[in-house]
Design goal:
The complex is a heterodimer of chains A (about 400) and B (about 150). Chain A has about 400 residues and is α+β, with helices and mostly antiparallel strands. Chain A folds into three domains: about 120 residues, no CATH class; about 150 residues, no CATH class; about 80 residues. Chain A is built from 13 helices and 14 strands. In chain A, the strands form four sheets. Chain A has a five-stranded mixed β-sheet with strand order 1-6-5-4-3, with no helix packed on it. In chain A, strand 4 and strand 5 form a beta hairpin. The radius of gyration of chain A is 30 Å and the shape is elongated. The two termini of chain A are about 55 Å apart. By secondary structure, chain B is mainly beta. Chain B has one domain. Helix content of chain B is about 10%, strand content about 40%. Chain B has three helices and seven strands. In chain B, strands 1, 2, 3, 4, 5, 6 and 7 form a seven-stranded mixed β-sheet that branches. The longest helix of chain B is centred in the N-terminal third of the chain and has 4 residues. About 15% of the residues of chain B have low confidence. At the A-B interface, strand 1, strand 2, helix 1, strand 3 and strand 5 of A face strand 1, strand 2, strand 3, strand 5 and strand 6 of B. Strand 3 of chain A pairs antiparallel with strand 1 of chain B, so a sheet runs across the interface. Chain B: It is found in: Nucleus. Chain B: GO terms for molecular function: DNA binding. Chain B: Belongs to the CTF8 family.
Chain lengths: ~400, ~150
């Protein structure tokens, strides 16, 4: 006889056990998964080649969980406790076995009903936890390894190497470009939005002139595109600060002589325009960019950084500061010249071996700004206290 | 390496496969989920005799033809002594839960809200490649952190 009035629930163990994994959700992920049109998520890891090229110092093998916009690193956390997954029993219990737990089951009437039972279906000794490392995830290092470098100078006299590029602007539809981009991003272990962000930052483009390939233009090529488009805009009287048709800008960079090959693929011009146009007006990467306008400040900044990357990429190739400022100004439309100043350059993008010279610092080598430097500390603080390995590591 | 899809919903909801036989969920309402899945955490583990030892006991004539055949081994009982169906909003009952192991041992535990909800994932059945799906999102667990104590009053 039970001394308790409350119901007791028979607890059983099911064989065969089922396979489940437990994934601890962040609040954002919970909201996403419980929303009405919850998207499918992806578990992504880099291709073998990419994993070797872009080494993550914190992990050898890893899997990232990607929502459409966000990336999380998955960490498997072992527990000495066992987590069992229960389900109401379907009543496949041998009545004879119930004796183990209740000898008077029939009489008390409290227990011998199969619908008063739960059963352990599965056991998990680890859970999957998610975290975002300080500094977050970026597709840029992966894209830099997987995109081909485009480094053809259109302002060179000789060798405009786009063989057969007369039709390079025509044959690739935006659909094919999209497919090529998406195929490439499959192997990049970050979310689609972050892949697209990186793609856009690098001015990456798809070109099918020789063979279908995804390219990232060198700083030199990007600068050449910029110079050419400024020339074209001046000649055709296009005000870059007001909305203009990207098609008009393309026409303006072409030579009058229709027979001449374009100086560079149209997709490259569009990629550069997309990179430097006003962010609010930037269409999603899946859409063609038809209209654009430039912000004087942002553009100036980008041009300065690109010039430096093209002309003084390392310490040994450092150039004079005043030469740099002059050249920078020369790259800008006449009315923007006043905007060029060292203080306008993005944080940490340059270094000076001595007071008169300057050279470019690769984004990966830049000193973390204050914001990212303090991030680990706050991350540690926010860390839930259950993982004592992490806690002790922090104290050391 | 190809990416693996993780679907937000179950392709074959547990309920749909067993519409006729969906058992009543005897757990307190707070622990009930649409799929019926719940979490129980134990310090230690449940040891059940391994399959090999039990093979002799199984009646093969009735079970081998049906690959889905499962059987349950009774372990004990779960009790939520302070829970009342008439007052489901009062959560004081969560402070106490019992698990009897066999007839003479009892563990005392509690029902806890998980600091972060846990998604229960499963391989998606009848999918070509490897695909996963979220079967359920669980927000509470039944938690027994102490060892079993002997009891005689069952």
């Amino acid at each position: 006889m039970s001394t308790q009035d409350s119901r007791s629930i028979l607890f059983t163990h099911t064989r065969p056990q089922e396979g489940f994994r437990l994934l601890e959700l962040t609040p954002e992920l919970e909201a996403l998964l419980t929303s009405k049109d919850a998207p499918a998520l992806e578990l992504k890891s880099p291709s073998t080649a990419l994993a070797q090229a872009v080494v993550d110092p914190t992990a050898h093998d890893y899997v990232n969980l990607c929502t459409p916009t966000q990336t999380y690193r998955i960490r498997q956390v072992q527990s000495s406790n066992s987590l069992h997954i229960l389900r109401p029993s379907r009543g496949e219990i041998s009545q004879a076995d119930i004796k183990v737990v209740e000898d008077e089951a029939g009489e008390s009437g409290a227990l011998n009903l199969p619908d008063e039972a739960v059963t352990a279906l599965a056991k998990c000794s680890s859970t999957l936890e998610l975290h975002i490392p300080p500094g977050g995830f970026s597709a840029v290092p992966f894209l830099e390894k997987s995109l081909r470098l485009y480094d053809r100078r259109s302002d060179d006299d000789g060798d405009i190497a786009m063989g057969g590029s007369a039709d390079s602007t025509g044959p690739l539809g935006s659909k094919e470009m999209r497919t090529a981009r998406e195929n490439l991003c499959q192997d990049i272990p970050v979310s689609t939005a972050q892949c697209e962000q990186g793609w856009m930052e690098l001015c990456a483009f798809v070109d099918g002139a020789e063979e279908m390939a995804c390219w990232r233009p060198s700083a030199r090529s990007r600068l050449a595109v910029w110079k050419r488009l400024v020339e074209g805009a001046v000649l055709q009287n296009i005000d870059l600060e007001k909305q203009f048709l990207v098609g008009d800008l393309w026409k303006s960079v072409l030579d009058d002589d229709e027979e001449m090959e374009p100086p560079f693929p149209r997709a490259l011009l569009e990629a550069v325009v997309r990179r430097i146009c006003i962010a609010d007006e930037r269409p999603p990467l899946t859409d063609d960019i038809k209209w654009a306008s430039f912000d004087k400040l942002e553009c100036t900044k980008w041009v300065g950084e690109t010039y430096l990357a093209a002309n003084a990429p390392t310490t040994s190739s450092a150039i004079g500061r005043s030469d740099f400022l002059h050249a920078w100004k020369d790259c800008l439309p006449e009315t923007w010249r006043g905007e060029a100043a060292l203080s306008k350059l993005p944080n940490g993008c340059y270094n000076s071996p001595d007071p008169t010279t300057i050279y470019f610092v690769e984004p990966a080598q830049r000193q973390p700004t204050n914001k990212t430097a303090s991030a680990p500390a706050t991350a540690a603080k926010n860390k839930n206290t259950r993982n004592w390995h992490e806690l002790l590591k922090g104290r050391r | 390496m190809p990416s693996i899809k993780l679907h937000p919903h179950c392709s074959t909801p547990v309920k749909a496969t067993a519409t006729d036989t969906t058992p009543n969920n005897p757990l307190p309402a707070l622990l009930q989920t649409p799929s019926g899945l719940a979490l129980l955490e134990l310090q230690g583990t449940i040891n059940v005799p391994s399959g090999n030892e039990e093979e002799d006991d199984i009646d093969y004539s009735s079970s081998t033809d049906n690959p889905a055949s499962t059987f349950e081994t009774p372990i004990g009982k779960l009790m939520f002594p302070d829970y009342s169906v008439h007052n489901p909003d009062d959560t004081k009952w969560m402070k106490r839960a019992y698990m009897y192991v066999g007839r003479y041992q009892r563990m005392t535990g509690e029902v806890k809200k998980l600091p972060r909800p846990i998604a229960v994932l499963q391989k998606r059945q009848a999918s070509e490649g490897e695909e996963l799906e979220v079967v359920e999102i669980v927000r509470y667990k039944i938690f027994f952190k102490s060892r079993p104590e002997p009891v005689t009053n069952v």
